[in-house]
Design the sequence.
């Protein structure tokens, strides 16, 4: 492999959403042997349409978006597995010695404090670095509910535009629900806050704000949902017999972070449950990175892609072979001709054959094409 032949991969990415796939794209194109393990599903896969992603039209579904991204990553030479990562453990002690024993004669032995063993649904793999892109799931309210994407929406920044000058609801009884209801007044004058029989839990300050905004608080629970012939929400029925028209709305019941692997690795987490990272996705444990919805910030596809790009660049900077610094030169000597380029044979052949390569098929076709007279 590129960085250390005693490991299966330089980088193992857990999760196949926009953040994880962008990390894998950058890491692979920057010469790191990369594996993506994706269990499937996720918030991006739920999207009926893609919003706010420049260059991607509204008619592209989340699944279409992800399928294209997966194919791109694979074309650049990353390995992709559909499956689960059941555990991630740092390589140390006997495990690291077992890895050492597999090294070729004369090969540099890896640092026994470095590297990780991933137990996946397909077996075990060893990687120098791990990227967690496992995201979260939105907590769903109890049914009856509108259809997700056709009346039930989880991203205000993505979908508020859809409801300009239309009747909307917000579900929940906490501060976040009350705040989102008031935010929606920026887009429409018809906003209901549905507590669904729950006792309000918002603060006194929020209650004062709410009383000074034209938001109707509906306390009765929902008993029925009416959709049009295409499945889009038309109205909700309530236990008091009322029928109220809505075009859509936002449930605000919190997030369930998929942080089991983060906790197993002992990563530092923020008060809101997200994994603490620096500006390039590095966590509190060396060699472990986190990106996307698992980390603090806006839960948006462009933001996730940006985080993935920065993490991919950070991985390159942290793992690249050259330039060799002065201490390494003293220890290992000058860089020899046989050590360059520092790309594995697999990535080397894939890059040379790729359309985007300087000497690849596309360039050859352009050279062969007749020029203008």
Sequence:
């Amino acid at each position: 492999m590129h960085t250390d032949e005693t490991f299966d991969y330089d980088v193992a990415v857990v999760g196949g959403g926009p953040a994880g796939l962008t990390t894998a794209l950058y890491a692979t194109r920057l010469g790191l042997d990369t594996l993506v393990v994706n269990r499937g599903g996720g918030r991006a896969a739920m999207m009926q349409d893609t919003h706010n992603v420049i260059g991607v039209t509204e008619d592209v579904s989340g699944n279409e978006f992800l399928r294209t991204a997966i194919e791109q990553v694979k074309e650049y030479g990353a390995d992709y597995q559909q499956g689960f990562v059941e555990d991630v453990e740092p390589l140390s002690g006997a495990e690291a010695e077992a890895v050492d024993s597999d090294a070729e004669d004369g090969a540099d032995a890896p640092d026994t404090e470095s590297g990780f063993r991933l137990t996946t649904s397909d077996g075990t793999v060893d990687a120098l670095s791990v990227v967690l892109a496992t995201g979260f799931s939105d907590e769903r309210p109890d049914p009856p509910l509108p259809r997700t994407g056709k009346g039930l929406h989880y991203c205000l920044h993505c979908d508020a535009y859809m409801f300009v000058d239309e009747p909307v609801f917000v579900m929940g009884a906490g501060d976040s629900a009350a705040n989102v209801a008031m935010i929606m007044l920026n887009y429409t004058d018809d906003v209901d806050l549905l507590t669904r029989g729950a006792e309000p839990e918002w603060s006194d300050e929020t209650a004062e704000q709410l009383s000074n905004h034209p938001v109707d608080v509906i306390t009765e629970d929902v008993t029925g949902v009416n959709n049009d012939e295409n499945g889009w929400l038309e109205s909700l029925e309530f236990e008091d017999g009322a029928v109220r028209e809505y075009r859509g709305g936002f449930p605000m019941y919190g997030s369930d972070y998929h942080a089991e692997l983060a906790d197993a690795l002992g990563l530092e987490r923020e008060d809101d449950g997200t994994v603490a990272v620096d500006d390039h996705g590095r966590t509190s444990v060396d060699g472990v990175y986190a990106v996307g919805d698992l980390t603090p910030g806006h839960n948006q596809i462009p933001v996730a892609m940006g985080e993935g790009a920065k993490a991919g660049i950070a991985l390159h900077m942290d793992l690249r072979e050259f330039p060799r610094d002065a201490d390494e030169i003293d220890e290992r000597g000058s860089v020899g001709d046989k050590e360059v380029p520092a790309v594995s044979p697999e990535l080397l052949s894939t890059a040379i054959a790729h359309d985007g390569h300087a000497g690849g098929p596309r360039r050859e076709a352009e050279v062969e094409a007749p020029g203008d007279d």
